[in-house]
Amino acid sequence: MKVLDEAKAIIFDLDGTLYEGDDHFKLYIKLTSEKLSHEKDKKKYAQEVQDILNGKHPMRIGTVLDKKRRNILTVDPFTFDIKKVTDWSGIQLSEEEVLDIYGSKIKYNVHQFTFIGDGWSPPVAVAAQYGLSPEIVRGVYQQVKETMVSGDYTLPITEGLKEGLWRLKRASKTLILMTNSDEADVRRLLAALGLTSCFSYLLTSAKKPFKSTTNFKQILEKYHLIPEEVVSVGDNFFNEIAPALRLGMKGVYITQKDFPYKSANLTVVKTLSNQI
């Protein structure tokens, strides 16, 4: 990929970037649904999450959830200007209501907003509708992560990725991993993927998107780089791509869906398979 070959440093996400597939999301939904008491709720929960992933729900990948009010916000991912707000059922709020509650754009607040940037977010967002606490869902998440590196799970390997990363490393590119996963999870997954020695720096528990910009700036300073020399690669536009583009970095966004936003510094791909 030309944009990677021209870079001095490349910052990779982990989940959904260095491995693909959706079996882990299916497991996450299944195990979370089993925490519900009633069979009817289990089925409704699973269907609602699946509707979000399939774009058949007011919430979808690329929207923002107001956790307190349970409103769903459609925002410009570069400027965070609010374009539309609906309640959970899809009823749209008036412009006056939106301005009264939020103003014209959202401000980062980890306690108020969840950015629905990839498949890990919907199971958590919907669980709250069914009364499951964040602690319960976090426990399920850890169970899924542990299962993914066990002998009972086949981790989906992206074809050509390992060879491509080593090619980039041999070409003197600085390869960095920046992920929200904790260090123990990261090291287990990298070992399972055979990528343990590929990266010069692991930035774990990165608190994306709320600290993405700060993290990127620290990496630029640490390696004495200017933004134009660095590429961020990931499957979550809020977490990895928009903050990079705002700093003048380049971005490679991995998505299976049509993506409406254009930028001279943005490359959109469906997979990294055999591309690097």
What would the keywords be for this entry?
38% helix, HAD_sf, six-stranded parallel sheet, alpha/beta, four-stranded antiparallel sheet, 15% strand, HAD-like_hydrolase_sf, globular, single chain, 276 residues, EC 3.1.3.-
Quick summary:
With 276 residues, this protein is an alpha/beta fold.
Please provide a written account of the structure.
Its EC number is 3.1.3.-. It comes from Terrilactibacillus laevilacticus. Keywords: Hydrolase, Magnesium. InterPro entries: HAD-like_hydrolase_sf, HAD-like_sf, HAD_sf. The chain is an alpha/beta fold and 276 residues long. The protein is 38% helix and 15% strand. The chain has helices at residues 2-5, 23-33, 39-53, 95-102, 121-129, 134-148, 161-170, 183-193, 212-222, 237-246; strands spanning 9-12, 64-66, 71-75, 82-86, 113-115, 174-178, 201-203, 230-234, 250-254, 266-269. Strand 8, helix 10 and strand 9 (250-254) form a beta-alpha-beta unit. The longest helix has 15 residues, at 39-53. The N and C termini lie close together (5 Å).
Run of helices and strands = HEHHEEEHEHHHEHEHEHEE
Sheet-strand content, in percent, reads 15-25%
Helix content: 25-40%
The strand count comes to: 10
What's the story with the biggest beta sheet? 6 strands, parallel
Quote the distance from N terminus to C terminus. 5 Å
Query: Average pLDDT value?
Result: 94
What's the tally of helices?
A: 10
Unreliable stretches covering 5 or more consecutive residues:
none
Structural class: alpha/beta
Shape: globular
Radius of gyration, whole Å: 19 Å
